[in-house]
UniProtKB/TrEMBL annotation:
The keyword Protein transport does not apply. Gene3D superfamilies: Bordetella uptake gene, domain 1, Periplasmic binding protein-like II. Keywords: Signal. InterPro entries: BUG (IPR005064), Bug_dom1 (IPR042100). It comes from Azohydromonas caseinilytica. Belongs to the UPF0065 (bug) family. This is Tripartite tricarboxylate transporter substrate binding protein. It holds the Pfam family TctC. Residues 1-26 form the signal peptide.
Amino acid sequence: MSLKRRTALLAGLGALALLQAPAALAQDYPARPIELVVPYPAGGGTDAVARAFADSLRKHLPQSVVVANKTGAGGAIGLTEVMAARPDGYKVGVGTVEMTMLPHLGTARFTAQDFVPIALLNAEPSAITVHANAPWRTVEDFLAHAKAYPDKVRVGNSGVGAIWHLAAEQLGRKSGVSFMHVPYAGANPAINDLMGGHIEAVTVSPAEVAQHVAGGKLRLLAVMADQRVKRFPEVPTLKEKGIDVSISTWRGIVAPKRTPQPVVDTLRAASQKAANEAEFRDALAKLDLTHAYADAPAFQKVIERDNAFFKQLMGELGIAK
């Protein structure tokens, strides 16, 4: 055999090996522990969902699932690490609604298209919450007061461009009200200031105020959802009141783009079983969090919907980059 033909043959065999390598690796997947990156600190809602899910997922995979908190930049650091990881299924992440927001703020290297959805696990709507001693018994009363005093009603949020800030902005736009938006380092400091009487309202999720509402310290006026929340069936939706606002945060499992399809399929199958484990559902219920499982195709539609929505909203608010 000539040197030229031998070189060509070796090159062809090398190319074939490269094509077969991902399939071979996927066939043995997972052969070692999987790292689940949480882009927010330990102890928060996203971390709690991740750890409860990891416990259930271990039952349906031959390898362990290790939770790693990679925090900072509003979730951008952890999500960037997942985006840049080798697409082999050994580093996946908890994707949150911020995947569809941070890119439009210009604070992230990634876009929503840089991730492969595996499973949606949880979703929580925004809600309008006031102090229990506030004079407003209904959302109509609250908005009427805000209209009478433009830019005077202080609404706490977790920073400009964060999900609950945008929820309050959209509420104002749809109801013809102008609020004074007060940023905090997170939902808890805002809630503490609401209980202390330093602000008039917050637009965080019902789960984040549930204990204080149950304890008689705070009052829920309405939720920004298509349906009422099971935990508070007496609280109306804004849509019931004629205000077309539905904004939620969500949490799910995502993998880096170009992850081999057999690996994605393995993760999807295991995630479906784990998400429907009674222990996982119970863990969410104890935290007043909503179980909202959806497989990859439906999860992808949620991502695409919110990516388009927040791009437009941030542009209209003048905060998109």
